[in-house]
Amino acid sequence: MTTVVILAGGKSQRMGQDKALILGGVERIRNLVIQIGECRVITLCGDKKRKQLFSGEVWPDPTHCDCLACIIDWVLEQIDDDVLFVPCDMYNLGVDGLEQLMLQPNCVAVDEKGARQPLLCHISNKSLVKDSKTLNEKFANFPSIECLDFVNQYSNFNYREDLIDRLLQ
Fold first, then answer.
1. The pTM is what?
2. pLDDT at residue 167 above 90?
3. Phi and psi (nearest 5°) for 22?
């Protein structure tokens, strides 16, 4: 079984509004996973005050973690299954793109610009995850998954301009 962990605890400073709530955000991604079936879905909400924003199984970030890399390590210690991390700002992600990631063990998705998206990754062998404070280094042992049919789905949205461009397409 695969546990999908939706990352929704960021401050969204570059976007200027809570990315976890834009265009259906977390709930949309959660519903995609539910459509696939046979997956556990956990939303990592950040501060415990954000827990009420989301439905289903919601975990606040542990207080002893001071960076996202530490939170990733903590999550991997809590879950025995395969883990698929999905950032809440994957607004183009569809069921088929999600299924493709689940088929690829130990991979990091590549977006339409050719950039690796280390927070959109499938982890089957946790021993491949490096002990590092940087995400790129943490997943350096993971091959990139470059599926031309899905690169658009694997793009994240960090800035308001990214979102406007998506809405105009």
1. 0.90
2. no
3. -80, 140
